[in-house]
């Protein structure tokens, strides 16, 4: 996977995800536990296609029964430009 240059905010975000992972919290991208070297893919936003649809990654923080975070799921979502 081709990596791209990350800005300071993106690096800080990835460092936060790594800290969660070190605490035993699963970090899933598109439903898979991917190697950390691939995590920069979450910052890639597609250009609108011919139908005006743009894709990007959105995070969901999944809570365990007592309220603590048990998983972080990053999934690609697509929206249509208005």
Report on this model:
The chain has 82 residues and is of the alpha+beta class. It is built from one helix and three strands. The chain has one helix at residues 8-22, and strands at 26-29, 53-63, 69-80. β2 and β3 (69-80) form a beta hairpin. The protein starts with 7 loop residues before the first helix and ends with a strand. The model has no long low-confidence stretch (mean pLDDT 91).
Give a quick set of tags describing it.
alpha+beta; 18% helix; 82 residues; single chain
Topology:
Blueprint: H1 8-22, E1 26-29, E2 53-63, E3 69-80
Parallel strand pairs: 1-3
Antiparallel strand pairs: 2-3
Task: Tell me briefly what this model is.
The chain has one domain. The protein has 1 helix and 3 strands; from the N terminus they run αβββ. It has one helix spanning 8-22, and strands at residues 26-29, 53-63, 69-80.
Number of helices: 1
* SSE topology string: HEEE
Main β-sheet, in a few words?
3 strands, mixed
Give the strand content. 25-35%
Helix content: 10-25%
**SSE class:** alpha+beta
Mean pLDDT: 91
User: What general outline do the C-alpha atoms trace?
Assistant: globular
As laid out across the biggest beta sheet, the strand order is: 1-3-2
What is the strand tally?
3
Structurally, how many domains make up the residues?
1
Query: Ends: how far apart?
Result: 31 Å
* Low-pLDDT runs: none
Write down the Rg: 14 Å
């Amino acid at each position: 996977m081709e990596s791209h240059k990350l800005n300071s905010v993106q690096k800080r975000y990835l460092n936060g995800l790594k800290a969660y992972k070190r605490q035993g919290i699963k970090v899933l991208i598109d439903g898979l536990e991917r190697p950390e070297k691939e995590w920069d893919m979450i910052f890639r936003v597609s250009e609108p296609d011919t139908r005006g649809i743009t894709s990007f990654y959105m995070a969901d923080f999944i809570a365990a029964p007592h309220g603590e975070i048990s998983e972080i799921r990053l999934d690609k979502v697509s929206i249509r430009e208005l």
